[in-house]
Amino acid sequence: MTSDVLTNAVAEGRCGDRLWLYATYHCNLACVYCLTESRPGIANRRTLSRETMVRAASEARELGFTGLGVTGGEVFMLTDAAETVVGLGEILPTVVLTNATLFTERILRRLEPLAGADVVLQISLDSPEPSRNDTLRGPENFGRVATAVPALLERGIRVRLATTVADQSEDELGRLCELHRSWGVSDDDHLVRSVVRRGRAALEDMGVEPGPTDILPELTITADGAFLHPFAPTVRHGVTDLDLLVSRQINPLEAALGRFLRVVADQPVGTDVARNIR
Amino acid sequence: MSRVRLLQRDETPVHARSIYAADGSASPLKRSLANAPDLLETLLPFLGQIFDEGAVDLATKELVVVRVSQLNGCRYCLAAHRPLALESGVLPEHLAAACNERPVAELPTRERAILEWVDRYLTDPHTIDDDLVARLLDYVRDDQLIELSLLIGATQLLNQYCTAFQVPPPA
Fold first, then answer.
1. What is d(CA A64, CA A89) in angstroms, rounded to the nearest whole number?
2. Phi first, then psi: what are they for A189, rounded to 5°?
3. B38 and A247 in contact by Cβ < 8 A?
4. Distance of CA B132 to the CA centre of its chain
């Protein structure tokens, strides 16, 4: 069965057991290193419907996945994002990547069912200096994150911070850690990772070129198809990169998973393989 | 200008890169189909079975492919298969007849019957009668006629695809 093959592939370190969903490529920001060229007003939003995501999540649980990741674009550009996230969290433990700039009181109220749920909102923040952060991520980004994080924590919603390193100094990152600790976010809930040289980052000549085994394969579903990992379905000049596409078919999920597992079965694994980008 | 992207090797999904030769080349048709790698998994073996030599010799198959492509006006497939037809042993005058550059009536009865089958199968299979089938079966077995008929359909599929997407003919 496909689920047994997944379990074995995970045990062998060939892939992860999290299913990623690209909810939309639409975003209210236009970060300089964005993998997907997301920005306000984008024409091709490549949106997954709530039904598609919930169905994929349910199938994923049956197939042996143990977690979900939801990303974009900005997930909360979708009008029903809060309810979708709550629903997904009832199916599998879920991490939601967000810029946290759209959390109005109304949205926060709709997210309150996440209190105590196995759902983490992973919020991007790149610098403790508002101007530095906002140069990378967009106007007023820092201030909105600084407002959103305490508001979420007060409601019992789990928060993790993610910092994408472009040219920040060690000192700058150290001060960022002091900041998140002051908000009540522990070091364990702070991820630091490099800019990956794909999408807009590649066009901007930024980031680390990922090698073929640098990134752990994790089945990633977008409106364009299923990809090898969440850094794969990138966009350049408005066109989706297909080099790491594993299947155009995403429904049923088992079809995409079958092709994904055939691809990862051909990839090297073992102690010599380092996953340098997480 | 192609209406679909013609992927280079390094743009193509990793698991579909076997369509490229060692020097990185592939036909424009394959490069366009690489956008749909799931379909390639079954389409290419299917097309290989249909177009390669099977129960029917390659020259007869190429004559049929050229005739279908001529009737459909497919620039891509004519450009690709006219040279292949000559390489496979189709006589130049037979090829010219299949391309309406010489009268079909001048062909030997075997080739004439095959082209008549192609014409009717493609344009209006209701007009096929027992007499035509009987004439065909003087030259080919029934399984060979099936193979030729599926070849007509597969060629039609590619003709329509290449024409609609304006896939540029191979250089």
1. 16
2. -105, 30
3. yes
4. 22
Whole-angstrom distance, CA of residue B145 vs CA of residue B137? 8
List the structure tokens of A33. 């290193």
| Interchain contact, A241 vs B11, CB within 8 Å | yes
- Residue pair B63/B84 in contact (Cβ under 8 Å)? The answer is no
Contact B97, B64 (CB under 8 A): no
B7 Cβ under 8 Å from any chain A Cβ: yes
pLDDT in tens, A19-76: 999 999 999 999 988 999 999 999 999 999 999 999 999 999 999 999 999 999 999 9
**pLDDT tens readout for residues A20-31:** 999 999 999 999
What are the 10-residue block averages of pLDDT along chain A, 278 residues in total? 90 96 97 93 96 98 98 97 97 98 96 96 95 91 96 97 88 94 96 92 91 92 97 96 96 96 87 67
Q: How far is A271 from chain B (nearest CA, A)?
A: 23
Asked whether the beta carbons of residue A243 and residue B11 sit closer than 8 angstroms, the reply is yes
Q: Are strands A235-236 and A239-240 parallel, antiparallel or unpaired?
A: antiparallel
Mutation target to probe the A interface, by most A beta carbons within 10 A, among B8, B9, B14 is B14
CA dist list (Å): B78 to A30, A90, B70, B155: 47, 57, 7, 11
- In B, which residues are within 8 Å of A239 by CB distance? 5
Partners of A159 in the beta sheet?
A: A121
DSSP state, residue A138: -
